[in-house]
Design brief:
alpha/beta; seven-stranded parallel sheet; 9 helices; 7 strands; disordered C terminus; binds coenzyme A
């Protein structure tokens, strides 16, 4: 299929865009002609991503929990590639543990990365958005919708991310900024699924629970990001769209059997 989206000359900033789904999103925008900027915590991951993204790409290490570092990265990106047309907020942290198996600081670490980090990227990024016309996309998770054992911290944080998406959509819509969310379901080849379904038995159980009976691909998620950022989605604001083969519609994140099958690290 020919590339239906053209982001030639547009500036797309992807927080967390150095690995996994977020890197896939960054690469899809680069392929569609965008200048892509990325941030993430590890300097070596930023350098590798910029190299792989190719001409016009830019990156700076920053921890999304640190507002000043996020603001500095955004300012640097704008100096390099101009005002931001598409801001993707995807940095996330996770570990698998029951509520009684984590400290208050462990809970806080994930809430700070996922929820406060999403706020920081949006709050520091707004002034750099090309308005009207810009789009903000927050990456959520099935845990925002379905409670999951050993994921209380992520469920709480991602549910907060979804509500933040809706609040920003109604506050920034009048400014010409659309704000939407994506819920990637079980996606193959990601660190998250490696943690949540570490064995082939667990992976088969997850696949069996997805109405489409397969894992999704990173490209499936990137395609939705391209669409939501494009003029074709010009009247979509405040939506949180799953790309999960029907898992959240089925009322499960597609993960419970796998997690109860033995991942208690
Ligand atoms: N079970 C219980 N608590 C855990 C834990 C686990 N598996 N992993 C981390 N924690 C707790 C730590 O014990 C610490 O709490 P404490 O100070 O009371 O001991 C707290 O979380 C912060 O840990 P720290 O190692 O300082 O984390 P960090 O701030 O550097 O990073 C994470 C936090 C969540 C990102 C970390 O778990 C991590 O690096 N995860 C892997 C990367 C990742 O999440 N990728 C995304 C996949 S979707």
């Amino acid at each position: 299929m020919s590339q239906p989206f053209d982001f030639t000359g547009r500036h797309v900033f992807v927080a967390g865009g150095t690995t996994g789904i977020n890197f896939g999103i960054a690469a899809a925008f680069a392929k569609a002609g965008a200048h892509v900027s990325v941030l993430s915590r590890a300097p070596e991951k930023v350098a590798a991503a910029v190299e792989r993204l190719g001409r016009g790409a830019w990156g700076q290490p920053a921890d999304v929990r640190n507002y000043g570092a996020v603001a500095a990265a955004l300012a640097g990106a704008v100096e390099h590639s101009g005002p931001i047309d598409v801001l993707v907020s995807g940095a996330a942290g996770n570990f698998v543990a029951p509520a009684l198996g984590m400290s208050a600081n462990g809970f806080k670490a994930v809430v700070d990365i996922d929820l406060l980090g999403t706020f920081n990227v949006a709050r520091a990024g707004f002034q750099h958005l090309r308005r009207p016309g810009a789009a903000l996309i927050n990456i959520s998770a099935p845990q925002a919708v379905n409670a999951l054992v050993q994921q209380a911290h992520v469920c709480a944080a991602k549910a907060g991310v979804d509500m933040l998406t809706k609040c920003l959509a109604i506050e920034w819509g009048p400014e010409g900024v659309r704000v939407n969310g994506i819920i990637p379901g079980p996606i193959e080849g990601t660190e998250g699924m490696a943690r949540l379904a570490p064995s082939e038995e667990a992976a088969a159980s997850v696949r069996g629970s997805v109405p489409l009976r397969r894992y999704g691909t990173i490209e499936d998620v990137a395609n939705l990001a391209l669409f939501l950022a494009s003029p074709l989605a010009g009247y979509i604001n405040g939506a949180i769209v799953p790309v999960d083969g029907g898992s959240t519609a089925a009322g499960s994140a597609g993960l419970v059997p796998a997690m109860t099958a033995g991942n208690r690290s």
